[in-house]
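Dissemination and training. As part of the outreach component of the grant, students in the summer workshop were shown how a complex can be specified as a set of sequence lines and then modelled as a single object. The example used during the hands-on session is reproduced here so that future cohorts can follow it. Participants entered these lines:
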Amino acid sequence: MPHPISPLLPHRVFGTSTSGNCHKVRLALDALDLPYRWHEIDVLKGETRTPEFLAMNPNGEVPVLQIDDHTFLPESNAILCYLADGSQLWPGDRLARAQALAWMFFEQYSHEPCIAVARFIRKFLKRDDDPRLPELTRRGHAALAVMEQHLSRQRFFAAGRFSIADIGLFAYTHRADEGGFDLAGYPAVRAWLQRCLQQHGISAMPSP
Amino acid sequence: MPHPISPLLPHRVFGTSTSGNCHKVRLALDALDLPYRWHEIDVLKGETRTPEFLAMNPNGEVPVLQIDDHTFLPESNAILCYLADGSQLWPGDRLARAQALAWMFFEQYSHEPCIAVARFIRKFLKRDDDPRLPELTRRGHAALAVMEQHLSRQRFFAAGRFSIADIGLFAYTHRADEGGFDLAGYPAVRAWLQRCLQQHGISAMPSP
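and obtained this result:
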């Protein structure tokens, strides 16, 4: 659990290694060659509901990036924006930046709540007969179809190059099979996943 | 339905006036004194599922901001970032900008899917006995409690002043009663709503 630390680098990350939202943060730090210390949090053991954790993030969710002794940044995609600010991973052009953000909001609204939640139900809770799965599966495939349409014409999601929008969508998409999603029908998505894995610092997430 | 337009101002917005996600865009345009033309879209009549609409946003959701003849930006909070870029509504400091984004991702992940969806079920579908409402109500109150804790110590959500993070959270919070949420237990939220309404260009959303 968190102790007061120096405001200097390395960054401290409070996260769960098998969570895609947390893996995004690791990918951005690795891609940017930023040093960090990783504090493993076990969500299933209630470690995001302790008073110490809620003091860092009142919303009780991982990941959290510690900025200094008293400043903690939650929300995976906001952490990506913070880490990548000023780098080649965060487009400098106003429209490209907004398009990257649009894909990151798409990820948190239309993709993660289906594909990541289905994976959580199947792989962490081990409930393959959960009544939520059919609807999550339908909506998850709709999100994948939107990605397939874009990637059939573009190599990456924004600015014509690899950015934090790709990191945000890579995290749960490359483990979509663990949520019961067969990517065989999405050749452009599969080719993009391979392009992502060829980028500096990008690695697969550990399976639960 | 959309026709080719000049890339010059005014912006064109495709939106639903009684949708909080769309009202956010109107608020940002009004707050920034930007001219715009509003194209009303009736979601319940299927107007977001037509080929013309899906050509603008393959994800089939309002709002959409038309940038030029061939460029359409979806996702309400990404549109706010685009419109406010370089203005006083979008913090220039790296950390403050990331904190504003963290609240905007919180809004789309933890707030809107409960408070807006409960409002949609009650006010648009008119199903007060919908079985999803108890869980949406529980999670919506959790989101309001997180906001209350922050606003009991801060006047606005980021950078110590009114920003697009406030616009993003204002939209559905000030109509939370229509989703069955009583704000009586959230005095700091109610005071913040009043502060928002005192800002230039900020107005209440029409009820359905």
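The CA atoms of residues 50 and 60 of chain A lie 9 Å apart. Students were then asked to discuss how this feature might be tested experimentally.
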